[in-house]
From TrEMBL:
It is a lipid-anchor; GPI-anchor. It is found in: Cell membrane; Cytoplasm. This is Cadherin-13. The gene is Cdh13. GO terms for molecular function: beta-catenin binding; cadherin binding; calcium ion binding. It comes from the Eukaryota. PROSITE patterns: CADHERIN_1, CADHERIN_2. GO terms for cellular component: adherens junction; catenin complex; cell surface; cytoplasm; side of membrane. It comes from Campylorhamphus procurvoides. Residues 162-235, 236-353, 354-467, 468-575, 574-685 form the Cadherin domain. InterPro entries: Cadherin, Cadherin-like_dom, Cadherin-like_sf, Cadherin_CS, Cadherin_pro_dom.
Length: 702
């Protein structure tokens, strides 16, 4: 090996004893292999007080340091990484040394970098008078502080010269971590360091005169915080839940567990190894799973036969996983997490009926669920491999039955959806199969237990008589004589095997027009049928009748009768309006337009004929003119005095024979001033042309 520190010690051979490694950095050429118990190099540690209770620790557990400082390999090893760190601690001091492992080509480059050599003549020339070698400081050092960690040497001695240290950790945040003795160049740390917070500090050293002017430098001083194994592995990505299908092949990967260690990833402090500490439950095997110690992959290690969800104590396994740093050595720190592994179900068990034949009884004429068919399925409940699908495969030609799955119990609910008739068939036999929503795995098939027979017995009930037809319709002319026969109804009893008698009665007759013979069902009239009655809707009168059998208890059937009534001319036309008013000085003598209406139907209504009764006196006072088939105009022939007049009018319909309505139109002649009509005195001046005519006739007769 070679050591640039030797040169530094030569320059400072007259300095007093400095506690710690007398040489802190070593460069060794990488051998093909480190041989077991072969000396690698000698380390010299001196706490300047006799090295009482001196102890060495090596970052790589494959190496050790004897009490005399000899570094040896504990076994043949070819790969150790780029560096080894040796920590020494005595009763009075502790320090860290670094052994850098380089190749042949790297050795000269490393030496040249540290000594800052340059030139091509092969004669080394010192570039700077300040020698600031890298300082290595273990993290988590305990008090007391400040603690000497290194030394900066200047080859030239200048009176009044002072060392000055600057950079992050000195005069920049975090401030005050490091300081330098202005005279001796001793570098001290003032507090405990945390590599996970800051791993490296890049400082600058310069030499100043008494006035503070820089006379040498600055030179870079690198301080590296040496990792200590002070962070436990942590599982940060939980919860950890994995799934594996039952019957999976041995070696099937279930999931990966990954832990994090905040220590230096290039050291064994963060070299993790995984292990299963506990498995719950422990059956059918206490070692159902294996975890790759380096990758953290959890795989199955039992045969597919043991990985049977239906035979397991529980389909859920919990594994306590341990991650240990230091490559899994006993000195490593540990962290644990729980991995939950669920054994997923596959459809490897067909559903089976709990019995081959089911019985059901149902009353005729009733619908609804009549029986629940039970099945067993060993697959995972509430999955498609467990949920049952039922099908009626025989015995349901009339589609009178349906079957559906109860989502809570998985039972088949067999229902009657079309009422059954005992007289047609008293027994039914259904063949039903059951399957799963999900298909079975290829090597499993549905067997005989996946079909069942249902025997259904229909119970006879006393059914009500049935009218034929229903509803019944008949057409009759209104006003037919009381006692006329409307219709003879026909009702039969569906219970043909019971030989029952039927009697009839009126159930609903809104107008009270009808009666029925209780024995033969003949319906007759008890009143005049009036098409214009409010009980008739759209020319149809509706009544309900009952047919009652002789069963115990008796059963009733209801029949509906619609009577369509034909119109006859039995209503005289009516006139509107019946009152009119006119001013005594009116210029427009058209008094009113009269209209006529008739409750009958065409042709017993319009066109109507409007006429005035004979007017008395020498002069005619009014006339009536037909406007159309339903209206006429009444007009005065001259202005009349203020009074009330009754105008006799007759209106005749077009029926055969026609009907005439003789009525009067009351005419009030009023005084009109300033757009106001005053008819108050008209009553006092009442004149009835009819009375005048009667008076004249009376005088004539005398």
């Amino acid at each position: 090996f070679f050591s640039p520190q030797v040169l530094l010690l030569t320059c400072a051979e007259d300095l007093e004893c400095v506690p710690g490694f007398q040489q802190k950095v070593f460069y060794i050429e990488k051998p093909f292999e480190f041989k077991e118990y072969q000396l690698v190099l000698n380390l010299k540690f001196d706490d300047c007080k006799g090295n009482n209770k001196l102890n060495f620790q090596v970052s790589n557990p494959d190496f050790m340091v004897d009490s005399d400082g000899s570094l040896v390999a504990l076994k043949n090893i070819s790969e150790v990484g780029r560096a080894l760190f040796v920590h020494a601690q005595s009763e009075h001091a502790e320090d860290m040394a670094e052994i850098v492992i380089v190749g042949t080509n790297e050795k000269q480059g490393a030496l040249k970098e540290i000594l800052k050599l340059e030139g091509t003549s092969g004669i080394p020339r010192q570039k700077r008078a300040i020698l600031a070698t890298p300082i290595l400081i273990p993290e988590n050092q305990r008090p007391p502080f400040p603690r000497l960690v290194g030394k900066v040497i200047r080859s030239e001695v200048t009176e009044g010269a002072k060392f000055r240290l600057s950079g992050k950790g000195v005069d920049q945040d975090p401030k005050g971590i490091f300081r330098i003795n202005e005279i001796t160049g001793d570098v001290s740390v003032t507090r405990t360091l945390d590599r996970e917070a800051i791993a490296n500090y890049e400082l600058e050293v310069e030499v100043t005169d008494l006035s503070g002017k820089t006379i040498d430098g600055p030179v870079r001083l690198d301080i590296s915080v040496i990792d200590q194994n002070d962070n436990r592995p942590m599982f940060k990505e939980g919860p950890y839940i994995g799934h594996v299908m039952e019957g999976s092949a041995t070696g099937t990967t279930v999931m990966r567990m990954t832990a994090f260690d905040a220590d230096d990833a290039s050291t064994d402090n963060a070299l993790l190894r995984y292990n299963i500490l506990k498995q719950t439950p422990t059956k059918p095997s206490p070692n159902m799973f294996y975890i790759d110690p380096e990758k953290g992959d959890i795989v199955t290690v039992v045969s597919p036969v043991l990985l049977d969800r239906e035979t397991m104590e529980s389909p859920k396994y919990e594994l306590v996983i341990e991650a240990k740093d230091m490559g899994g050595l006993d000195v490593g720190l540990t962290g644990t997490a729980t991995a939950t592994i669920l054994i997923d179900d596959k459809n490897d068990h067909p559903p089976e009926f709990t019995k081959k034949e089911f019985q059901a009884t149902v009353k005729e004429g009733v619908t609804g669920v009549i029986v629940n068919l039970t099945v067993g399925d060993r697959d995972d409940p509430v999955t498609g491999a467990w949920r049952a699908v039922y099908t009626i495969i025989n015995g349901n030609p009339g589609q009178s039955f349906e079957i559906h799955t109860n989502p809570q119990t998985n039972e088949g609910m067999l229902s009657v959806v079309k009422p059954l008739d005992y007289e047609i068939s008293a027994f039914h036999t259904l063949l039903i199969k059951v399957e799963n929503e999900d298909p079975l795995i290829p090597d499993i098939a549905y067997g005989p237990s996946s079909t069942a027979t249902v025997q259904i017995t229909v119970e006879d009930v006393n059914e009500g008589p049935v009218f034929h037809p229903n509803p019944m319709t008949v057409t009759k002319q209104e006003n037919i004589p009381i006692g006329s026969v409307v219709l003879t109804v026909n009702a039969t009893d569906p219970d043909t095997l019971q030989h029952q008698t039927i009697r009839y009665s009126v159930h609903k007759d809104p107008a009270g027009w009808l009666e029925i013979n209780p024995t033969n069902g003949t319906i007759g009239t008890t009143a005049v049928l009036d098409r214009e009655s409010p009980f008739v809707q759209d020319n149809v009168y509706t009544a309900l009748f009952l047919a009652i059998d002789s069963g115990n208890p008796p059963a009733t059937g209801t029949g509906t009768l619609h009577i369509t009534l034909e119109d006859v001319n039995d209503n005289v036309p009516s006139l509107y309006p019946t009152l009119a008013k006119v001013c005594d000085d009116a210029k427009d003598l058209r008094v009113v337009i009269l209209g006529a209406s008739d409750k009958d139907l065409h042709p017993n209504t319009d066109p109507f004929k409007f006429e005035l009764s004979k007017q008395s006196g020498p002069e005619k006072l009014w006339r009536i003119n037909k406007l159309n088939s339903t209206h006429a105009q009444v007009t005065l022939l001259q202005n009349l005095k203020k009074a009330n007049y009754n105008i006799p009018i007759s209106v005749t319909d077009s029926g055969k024979p026609p009907l005439t309505n003789n009525t009067e139109l009351k005419l009030q002649v009023c005084t009109c001033k300033k757009s106001k009509m005053d008819c108050s005195a008209s009553d006092a001046l009442h004149i009835s042309l009819t009375l005048v005519l009667l008076s004249l006739l009376s005088l004539f007769c005398k």
